[in-house]
């Protein structure tokens, strides 16, 4: 069986393609989908600033386009002094597809990294049940 693809390496590679003329802050993300395939994304900014998308959103969009709707692991990398943590919106996006024991690894290009459970990243996540009437 082939070695599983290293998510940090995949995130590091895709980060090089980030389109960041406004922040100049490149971010890469890579995730392992439920079927084992790896999908990657980078941040894509826009002159209309709020239209920019995060690396995590790109990786998730690629996964769904690839026919997968669950993830077991995700990694994010940036050239930051400490491992970059996903923004609030991306936490909710990741949570949508994360399997119960899914993990997130946040890394710096200098080699620092920290891993935690996706569930711990978004306490009080908005969930479908909140739309149920009593
Ligand atoms: N960004 C990401 O892509 N992911 C993160 O986890 C943090 C922030 C991007 C959004 C924007 O293009 C740039 O980093 C600065 O906020």
Shape: globular
Strand order of the largest sheet: 2-1-3-4-5
Distance between the termini: 50 Å
How much beta, percentage-wise?
25-35%
What is the share of helical residues? 25-40%
Q: Could you name the ranges where pLDDT drops below 50 across 5 or more consecutive residues?
A: none
CATH topology: Cytidine Deaminase, domain 2
- Attached small molecules: tetrahydrodeoxyuridine
In round numbers, the mean pLDDT is: 96
- How many domains in all? 1
Question: Summed up, what is this model?
Answer:
The protein has helices at 7-15, 55-65, 88-97, 118-121; strands spanning 27-33, 38-42, 71-78, 98-108, 113-117.
How are the secondary structure elements laid out?
Elements lengths: L6 H9 L11 E7 L4 E5 L12 H11 L5 E8 L9 H10 E11 L4 E5 H4 L13
Parallel strand pairs: 3-4
Antiparallel strand pairs: 1-2, 1-3, 4-5
List key phrases describing it:
binds tetrahydrodeoxyuridine, 134 residues, single chain, Cytidine Deaminase, domain 2, five-stranded mixed sheet, alpha+beta
Written overview of the protein:
Strands 2-1-3-4-5 form a five-stranded mixed sheet. The chain contains four helices and five strands; from the N terminus they run αββαβαββα. The chain starts with 6 loop residues before the first helix and ends in a 13-residue tail after the last helix. The protein has helices at 7-15, 55-65, 88-97, 118-121, and strands at residues 27-33, 38-42, 71-78, 98-108, 113-117. The protein is globular. The chain has a single domain, classed as Cytidine Deaminase, domain 2. Helices cover 25% and strands 27% of the residues. It is of the alpha+beta class and 134 residues long. The model has no long low-confidence stretch (mean pLDDT 96). The protein binds tetrahydrodeoxyuridine. Tetrahydrodeoxyuridine binds at residues 20, 23, 25, 27, 43, 45, 52, 54-56, 76, 84, 86-87, 90. Residues 20, 23, 25, 27, 43, 45, 52, 54-56, 76, 84, 86-87, 90 line the site of tetrahydrodeoxyuridine.
